[in-house]
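Below is how a single chain appears once it has passed through the pipeline. First comes the sequence as given, then the structure the pipeline wrote out for it. We keep one example in the README because the format questions we get most often are answered faster by looking than by reading.
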Amino acid sequence: MNLRRVKAVAWKEFVQIRRDPRSLGLALGIPMFLLVIFGYGLSLDIDHVRTVVWNQDASSELSRDFLLNFSNSKYFKIVKHTDNYRDIEHMIDSGQIMMALIIPKDFSHFIESGKAAPLQLIIDGSDANTATIARGYVQSVVANYNVNLLSSAFNRHGLQAPQSIDARSRIWFNMGLTSTWFIAPGVIAMIIMIIAALLTSICVAREWERGTMEQLISTPVKAPELIIGKFIPYFAIGFFDLVVGVLMARFLFGVPFRGNYFLLAALSALFLTGALSQGIIISVVAKSQLMASQLATLTTMVPTMILSGFIYPIFNMPQALQVVTYLIPARYYIVVLRELFLKGGGMDILWDEALFLSIFAFIMLGLAIKKFKKKVA
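Resulting structure:
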Protein backbone atom coordinates (compact mmCIF):
# COMPACT_ATOMS: atom_id res chain seq x y z
CA MET A 1 0.00 0.00 0.00
CA ASN A 2 1.36 3.39 -1.04
CA LEU A 3 0.92 5.89 1.78
CA ARG A 4 1.42 8.84 -0.58
CA ARG A 5 -1.61 7.78 -2.62
CA VAL A 6 -3.65 7.22 0.55
CA LYS A 7 -2.67 10.71 1.71
CA ALA A 8 -3.67 12.16 -1.66
CA VAL A 9 -7.11 10.52 -1.58
CA ALA A 10 -7.63 11.62 2.02
CA TRP A 11 -6.65 15.19 1.17
CA LYS A 12 -9.03 15.14 -1.83
CA GLU A 13 -11.84 14.02 0.48
CA PHE A 14 -11.01 16.74 3.01
CA VAL A 15 -11.20 19.33 0.23
CA GLN A 16 -14.52 17.87 -0.92
CA ILE A 17 -15.91 18.10 2.61
CA ARG A 18 -14.69 21.69 2.92
CA ARG A 19 -16.43 22.61 -0.33
CA ASP A 20 -19.70 21.23 1.01
CA PRO A 21 -20.22 23.22 4.25
CA ARG A 22 -23.84 22.11 4.59
CA SER A 23 -22.90 18.45 4.88
CA LEU A 24 -20.10 19.33 7.28
CA GLY A 25 -22.51 21.42 9.34
CA LEU A 26 -24.94 18.52 9.53
CA ALA A 27 -22.16 16.11 10.47
CA LEU A 28 -21.11 18.34 13.35
CA GLY A 29 -24.47 19.83 14.30
CA ILE A 30 -26.76 16.79 14.23
CA PRO A 31 -24.93 14.97 17.06
CA MET A 32 -25.26 17.98 19.37
CA PHE A 33 -28.89 18.45 18.36
CA LEU A 34 -29.75 14.79 18.99
CA LEU A 35 -27.96 14.73 22.32
CA VAL A 36 -29.83 17.82 23.52
CA ILE A 37 -33.19 16.50 22.27
CA PHE A 38 -32.77 13.03 23.78
CA GLY A 39 -31.05 14.27 26.93
CA TYR A 40 -33.76 16.77 27.79
CA GLY A 41 -36.78 15.34 25.97
CA LEU A 42 -36.45 11.62 26.64
CA SER A 43 -36.88 10.77 30.30
CA LEU A 44 -37.81 7.51 31.95
CA ASP A 45 -38.63 9.29 35.21
CA ILE A 46 -42.33 9.82 35.94
CA ASP A 47 -42.71 13.03 37.94
CA HIS A 48 -45.55 15.49 38.53
CA VAL A 49 -48.41 13.12 37.73
CA ARG A 50 -51.32 15.49 37.14
CA THR A 51 -53.98 14.67 39.72
CA VAL A 52 -57.43 15.89 40.65
CA VAL A 53 -58.78 15.40 44.19
CA TRP A 54 -62.33 15.01 45.44
CA ASN A 55 -62.20 15.12 49.21
CA GLN A 56 -65.68 14.28 50.47
CA ASP A 57 -64.39 14.50 54.04
CA ALA A 58 -62.82 17.94 53.63
CA SER A 59 -63.75 19.08 57.14
CA SER A 60 -61.64 16.34 58.66
CA GLU A 61 -58.07 17.08 59.69
CA LEU A 62 -57.12 13.46 59.01
CA SER A 63 -58.11 13.65 55.35
CA ARG A 64 -56.25 16.94 54.86
CA ASP A 65 -53.20 15.47 56.56
CA PHE A 66 -53.36 12.45 54.27
CA LEU A 67 -53.50 14.65 51.16
CA LEU A 68 -50.37 16.52 52.27
CA ASN A 69 -48.43 13.37 51.43
CA PHE A 70 -49.41 13.92 47.80
CA SER A 71 -49.16 17.68 47.56
CA ASN A 72 -45.68 17.67 49.15
CA SER A 73 -44.39 14.96 46.82
CA LYS A 74 -42.58 15.70 43.56
CA TYR A 75 -44.30 12.70 41.98
CA PHE A 76 -47.76 14.28 42.07
CA LYS A 77 -49.16 17.61 40.96
CA ILE A 78 -52.64 18.34 42.27
CA VAL A 79 -54.14 20.54 39.57
CA LYS A 80 -57.69 20.84 40.89
CA HIS A 81 -60.10 19.99 43.69
CA THR A 82 -63.56 18.97 42.54
CA ASP A 83 -66.84 17.80 44.05
CA ASN A 84 -68.29 15.54 41.34
CA TYR A 85 -67.44 12.67 38.99
CA ARG A 86 -68.38 14.63 35.87
CA ASP A 87 -65.33 16.87 36.21
CA ILE A 88 -63.11 13.85 36.78
CA GLU A 89 -64.46 12.05 33.74
CA HIS A 90 -64.12 15.14 31.54
CA MET A 91 -60.56 15.89 32.65
CA ILE A 92 -59.39 12.30 32.11
CA ASP A 93 -61.10 12.07 28.71
CA SER A 94 -59.52 15.33 27.58
CA GLY A 95 -56.07 14.36 28.85
CA GLN A 96 -55.88 17.17 31.41
CA ILE A 97 -55.10 14.76 34.25
CA MET A 98 -53.62 11.32 34.65
CA MET A 99 -55.20 10.36 37.95
CA ALA A 100 -58.02 11.15 40.38
CA LEU A 101 -58.15 10.57 44.15
CA ILE A 102 -61.57 10.29 45.80
CA ILE A 103 -61.67 10.33 49.60
CA PRO A 104 -65.06 9.16 50.97
CA LYS A 105 -67.06 11.19 53.50
CA ASP A 106 -66.49 8.71 56.32
CA PHE A 107 -62.70 8.58 55.81
CA SER A 108 -61.79 9.98 59.25
CA HIS A 109 -64.50 7.89 60.96
CA PHE A 110 -63.00 4.67 59.60
CA ILE A 111 -59.51 5.62 60.76
CA GLU A 112 -60.59 6.70 64.24
CA SER A 113 -62.54 3.49 64.69
CA GLY A 114 -59.50 1.42 63.69
CA LYS A 115 -61.00 0.17 60.46
CA ALA A 116 -59.47 0.23 56.96
CA ALA A 117 -60.49 3.49 55.30
CA PRO A 118 -61.48 3.11 51.63
CA LEU A 119 -59.76 5.26 49.01
CA GLN A 120 -60.83 5.36 45.38
CA LEU A 121 -58.13 5.80 42.75
CA ILE A 122 -58.98 6.42 39.09
CA ILE A 123 -56.07 6.26 36.61
CA ASP A 124 -55.95 6.87 32.87
CA GLY A 125 -54.70 3.50 31.59
CA SER A 126 -54.15 4.54 27.95
CA ASP A 127 -50.44 4.75 28.80
CA ALA A 128 -50.07 1.45 30.61
CA ASN A 129 -46.47 1.93 31.72
CA THR A 130 -47.05 5.38 33.22
CA ALA A 131 -50.30 4.21 34.83
CA THR A 132 -48.50 1.29 36.50
CA ILE A 133 -45.77 3.56 37.84
CA ALA A 134 -48.31 6.13 39.11
CA ARG A 135 -50.26 3.42 40.91
CA GLY A 136 -47.03 2.25 42.53
CA TYR A 137 -46.38 5.79 43.76
CA VAL A 138 -49.83 5.94 45.36
CA GLN A 139 -49.37 2.55 47.00
CA SER A 140 -46.03 3.72 48.41
CA VAL A 141 -47.61 6.88 49.87
CA VAL A 142 -50.45 4.87 51.41
CA ALA A 143 -48.03 2.32 52.89
CA ASN A 144 -45.92 5.06 54.50
CA TYR A 145 -49.02 6.77 55.84
CA ASN A 146 -50.23 3.50 57.38
CA VAL A 147 -46.89 2.97 59.12
CA ASN A 148 -46.89 6.50 60.54
CA LEU A 149 -50.54 6.21 61.58
CA LEU A 150 -49.91 2.93 63.37
CA SER A 151 -46.85 4.30 65.11
CA SER A 152 -48.68 7.42 66.35
CA ALA A 153 -51.62 5.32 67.58
CA PHE A 154 -49.34 3.18 69.71
CA ASN A 155 -47.47 6.21 71.04
CA ARG A 156 -50.72 7.90 72.12
CA HIS A 157 -51.44 4.95 74.39
CA GLY A 158 -47.90 4.83 75.74
CA LEU A 159 -47.08 1.63 73.95
CA GLN A 160 -44.10 0.83 71.80
CA ALA A 161 -44.81 0.47 68.10
CA PRO A 162 -44.45 -3.08 66.84
CA GLN A 163 -41.19 -3.94 65.13
CA SER A 164 -41.33 -4.38 61.39
CA ILE A 165 -38.85 -5.25 58.68
CA ASP A 166 -36.32 -2.43 58.30
CA ALA A 167 -35.34 -2.68 54.64
CA ARG A 168 -32.61 -0.18 53.78
CA SER A 169 -31.75 -0.02 50.09
CA ARG A 170 -28.61 1.42 48.61
CA ILE A 171 -28.36 2.30 44.93
CA TRP A 172 -24.96 1.88 43.30
CA PHE A 173 -23.57 3.93 40.38
CA ASN A 174 -26.69 6.11 39.99
CA MET A 175 -27.78 7.02 43.49
CA GLY A 176 -30.50 9.42 42.38
CA LEU A 177 -31.84 7.00 39.74
CA THR A 178 -31.50 9.81 37.18
CA SER A 179 -32.62 8.51 33.79
CA THR A 180 -30.38 11.01 31.94
CA TRP A 181 -27.34 9.16 33.28
CA PHE A 182 -28.73 6.03 31.64
CA ILE A 183 -29.82 7.70 28.40
CA ALA A 184 -26.85 9.96 27.55
CA PRO A 185 -24.27 7.19 26.95
CA GLY A 186 -26.79 5.34 24.77
CA VAL A 187 -27.43 8.50 22.74
CA ILE A 188 -23.69 8.87 22.11
CA ALA A 189 -23.55 5.30 20.75
CA MET A 190 -26.58 5.91 18.56
CA ILE A 191 -25.14 9.16 17.20
CA ILE A 192 -21.78 7.62 16.36
CA MET A 193 -23.38 4.64 14.62
CA ILE A 194 -25.90 6.61 12.58
CA ILE A 195 -23.73 9.61 11.67
CA ALA A 196 -20.67 7.52 10.79
CA ALA A 197 -22.57 5.14 8.54
CA LEU A 198 -24.59 7.97 7.00
CA LEU A 199 -21.53 10.10 6.19
CA THR A 200 -19.55 7.36 4.49
CA SER A 201 -22.59 5.83 2.78
CA ILE A 202 -22.77 8.76 0.39
CA CYS A 203 -19.04 9.34 -0.19
CA VAL A 204 -18.52 6.60 -2.81
CA ALA A 205 -22.05 6.91 -4.19
CA ARG A 206 -21.38 10.62 -4.75
CA GLU A 207 -18.36 9.76 -6.90
CA TRP A 208 -20.50 7.50 -9.09
CA GLU A 209 -23.27 10.07 -9.46
CA ARG A 210 -20.91 12.91 -10.35
CA GLY A 211 -18.90 10.84 -12.80
CA THR A 212 -15.62 11.29 -10.94
CA MET A 213 -15.29 7.61 -10.09
CA GLU A 214 -14.12 6.87 -13.64
CA GLN A 215 -11.30 9.37 -13.15
CA LEU A 216 -10.28 7.72 -9.87
CA ILE A 217 -10.37 4.28 -11.49
CA SER A 218 -8.02 5.44 -14.22
CA THR A 219 -5.39 6.51 -11.65
CA PRO A 220 -2.81 4.16 -10.08
CA VAL A 221 -4.69 4.34 -6.77
CA LYS A 222 -5.56 0.83 -5.61
CA ALA A 223 -8.88 -0.13 -4.06
CA PRO A 224 -7.57 -0.42 -0.46
CA GLU A 225 -5.82 2.94 -0.80
CA LEU A 226 -9.00 4.57 -2.09
CA ILE A 227 -11.17 3.13 0.68
CA ILE A 228 -8.73 4.01 3.47
CA GLY A 229 -8.13 7.46 2.01
CA LYS A 230 -11.85 8.15 2.05
CA PHE A 231 -12.09 6.60 5.50
CA ILE A 232 -9.61 8.94 7.25
CA PRO A 233 -11.50 12.29 7.00
CA TYR A 234 -14.76 10.81 8.23
CA PHE A 235 -12.95 9.04 11.05
CA ALA A 236 -11.70 12.45 12.18
CA ILE A 237 -15.22 13.91 12.00
CA GLY A 238 -16.68 10.93 13.86
CA PHE A 239 -14.09 11.20 16.60
CA PHE A 240 -14.81 14.91 16.92
CA ASP A 241 -18.52 14.08 17.35
CA LEU A 242 -17.55 11.57 20.04
CA VAL A 243 -15.54 14.18 21.95
CA VAL A 244 -18.41 16.67 21.72
CA GLY A 245 -20.88 14.03 22.92
CA VAL A 246 -18.73 13.06 25.91
CA LEU A 247 -18.20 16.70 26.89
CA MET A 248 -21.93 17.47 26.62
CA ALA A 249 -22.85 14.40 28.67
CA ARG A 250 -20.25 15.28 31.27
CA PHE A 251 -20.81 19.01 31.69
CA LEU A 252 -24.27 19.74 30.26
CA PHE A 253 -26.15 16.77 31.75
CA GLY A 254 -23.85 16.14 34.70
CA VAL A 255 -23.21 12.47 33.90
CA PRO A 256 -20.10 11.38 35.84
CA PHE A 257 -17.20 9.74 34.03
CA ARG A 258 -15.49 7.19 36.28
CA GLY A 259 -13.49 5.20 33.74
CA ASN A 260 -10.34 5.62 31.67
CA TYR A 261 -10.40 8.10 28.78
CA PHE A 262 -7.71 6.22 26.85
CA LEU A 263 -9.76 3.01 27.02
CA LEU A 264 -12.80 4.97 25.85
CA ALA A 265 -10.81 6.34 22.91
CA ALA A 266 -9.46 2.91 21.93
CA LEU A 267 -12.79 1.09 22.03
CA SER A 268 -14.57 4.01 20.37
CA ALA A 269 -12.02 3.89 17.54
CA LEU A 270 -12.90 0.23 16.96
CA PHE A 271 -16.63 0.95 16.93
CA LEU A 272 -16.15 3.98 14.68
CA THR A 273 -14.03 1.98 12.27
CA GLY A 274 -16.74 -0.67 11.93
CA ALA A 275 -19.53 1.89 11.55
CA LEU A 276 -17.65 3.87 8.88
CA SER A 277 -16.76 0.70 7.00
CA GLN A 278 -20.40 -0.41 7.09
CA GLY A 279 -21.35 2.91 5.50
CA ILE A 280 -18.74 2.42 2.77
CA ILE A 281 -20.11 -1.06 2.03
CA ILE A 282 -23.61 0.41 1.67
CA SER A 283 -22.24 3.16 -0.55
CA VAL A 284 -20.41 0.72 -2.83
CA VAL A 285 -23.51 -1.45 -3.20
CA ALA A 286 -26.07 1.33 -3.66
CA LYS A 287 -24.18 3.67 -6.05
CA SER A 288 -26.90 6.26 -5.37
CA GLN A 289 -26.75 8.86 -2.61
CA LEU A 290 -30.49 8.66 -1.95
CA MET A 291 -30.53 4.87 -1.79
CA ALA A 292 -27.32 4.79 0.25
CA SER A 293 -28.63 7.25 2.85
CA GLN A 294 -31.91 5.35 3.16
CA LEU A 295 -30.13 2.01 3.60
CA ALA A 296 -27.74 3.51 6.13
CA THR A 297 -30.59 4.94 8.19
CA LEU A 298 -32.57 1.70 8.04
CA THR A 299 -29.65 -0.57 8.99
CA THR A 300 -28.35 1.63 11.81
CA MET A 301 -31.12 3.67 13.41
CA VAL A 302 -33.73 0.94 13.85
CA PRO A 303 -31.39 -1.74 15.29
CA THR A 304 -29.61 0.78 17.51
CA MET A 305 -32.83 2.25 18.87
CA ILE A 306 -34.72 -1.01 19.39
CA LEU A 307 -32.30 -3.91 19.76
CA SER A 308 -29.20 -2.51 21.44
CA GLY A 309 -30.53 -2.01 24.95
CA PHE A 310 -30.45 1.76 24.45
CA ILE A 311 -33.98 2.24 25.80
CA TYR A 312 -35.58 -1.20 26.12
CA PRO A 313 -33.85 -3.81 28.31
CA ILE A 314 -32.68 -6.81 26.30
CA PHE A 315 -33.70 -9.31 28.98
CA ASN A 316 -37.31 -8.15 28.52
CA MET A 317 -37.34 -9.05 24.81
CA PRO A 318 -38.57 -12.36 23.35
CA GLN A 319 -35.91 -15.05 23.27
CA ALA A 320 -35.60 -14.91 19.47
CA LEU A 321 -34.92 -11.16 19.52
CA GLN A 322 -32.40 -11.58 22.31
CA VAL A 323 -30.39 -13.83 20.01
CA VAL A 324 -30.56 -11.22 17.22
CA THR A 325 -29.18 -8.51 19.53
CA TYR A 326 -25.84 -10.32 19.65
CA LEU A 327 -25.33 -9.20 16.04
CA ILE A 328 -25.95 -5.52 16.85
CA PRO A 329 -22.58 -3.78 17.44
CA ALA A 330 -24.21 -0.88 19.29
CA ARG A 331 -25.23 -3.35 22.00
CA TYR A 332 -21.60 -3.84 22.97
CA TYR A 333 -20.59 -0.19 22.59
CA ILE A 334 -23.43 0.95 24.84
CA VAL A 335 -22.19 -1.46 27.50
CA VAL A 336 -18.71 0.08 27.10
CA LEU A 337 -20.01 3.64 27.49
CA ARG A 338 -22.22 2.91 30.51
CA GLU A 339 -19.47 0.91 32.18
CA LEU A 340 -16.90 3.68 31.71
CA PHE A 341 -19.26 6.54 32.56
CA LEU A 342 -21.09 5.10 35.56
CA LYS A 343 -19.12 2.16 36.94
CA GLY A 344 -15.51 2.97 36.14
CA GLY A 345 -14.74 -0.56 34.92
CA GLY A 346 -11.59 -1.50 33.06
CA MET A 347 -10.44 -3.92 30.42
CA ASP A 348 -10.93 -6.85 32.80
CA ILE A 349 -14.67 -6.15 32.66
CA LEU A 350 -14.93 -5.05 29.02
CA TRP A 351 -12.77 -7.62 27.25
CA ASP A 352 -15.84 -9.38 25.77
CA GLU A 353 -17.08 -6.12 24.28
CA ALA A 354 -13.58 -5.19 23.10
CA LEU A 355 -13.23 -8.54 21.34
CA PHE A 356 -16.55 -8.20 19.51
CA LEU A 357 -15.86 -4.58 18.50
CA SER A 358 -12.47 -5.67 17.15
CA ILE A 359 -14.12 -8.43 15.10
CA PHE A 360 -16.78 -6.00 13.89
CA ALA A 361 -14.18 -3.42 12.80
CA PHE A 362 -11.97 -6.05 11.10
CA ILE A 363 -14.80 -7.72 9.19
CA MET A 364 -16.46 -4.47 8.07
CA LEU A 365 -13.20 -2.86 6.93
CA GLY A 366 -12.16 -6.06 5.13
CA LEU A 367 -15.53 -6.31 3.38
CA ALA A 368 -15.41 -2.66 2.36
CA ILE A 369 -12.01 -3.11 0.75
CA LYS A 370 -12.95 -6.39 -0.90
CA LYS A 371 -16.34 -5.17 -2.13
CA PHE A 372 -14.95 -2.15 -3.97
CA LYS A 373 -13.78 -2.98 -7.50
CA LYS A 374 -11.98 -0.65 -9.86
CA LYS A 375 -14.47 -1.29 -12.62
CA VAL A 376 -16.94 1.00 -14.30
CA ALA A 377 -19.63 -1.68 -14.44
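Strands lie at 49-55, 76-81, 99-103, 120-123.

See the next section for the split statistics.
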